[in-house]
Amino acid sequence: MYSIAERWDRDEYPVTEISMAKLLVGRVTTQVADTCLQLHGGMGYMAESGISRYFRDSRLIRIGGGTDEVMKEIIAKTALGL
Ligand SMILES: Cc1cc2nc3c(=O)[nH]c(=O)nc-3n(C[C@H](O)[C@H](O)[C@H](O)COP(=O)(O)OP(=O)(O)OC[C@H]3O[C@@H](n4cnc5c(N)ncnc54)[C@H](O)[C@@H]3O)c2cc1C
With a 6 A CB cut-off, is 6 part of the ligand 1 pocket? Predict the structure, then answer.
């Protein structure tokens, strides 16, 4: 993350690494939110609980600004030349 931010600051656009980072962050975020919801049990599932909202919001990272599948397509094209 820091290395990508530094490169961005140097006016570089490391698209492969940015796509890899977005893919990873989305996956980690949803895993963390899922673990947190599990920890709260049935109450965590209920719409009125804050963790339920966080759980749903965490999914947006894997959809908005380019879905996971689109990130994988970019990585395949730019890093692997597929
Ligand atoms: C709360 C929210 C806020 C948003 N805010 C903004 C915003 O401010 N500005 C903005 O521009 N957009 C915004 N969006 C739109 C968002 O960027 C799109 O929802 C996102 O790009 C996915 O497009 P889509 O919904 O049309 O899904 P689709 O493109 O229909 O995709 C549906 C599924 O098919 C998969 N898919 C699509 N194409 C391929 C492919 N070539 N290969 C493999 N799989 C594929 C996708 O990965 C996904 O799983 C927002 C969306 C939400 C939910």
Answer: no
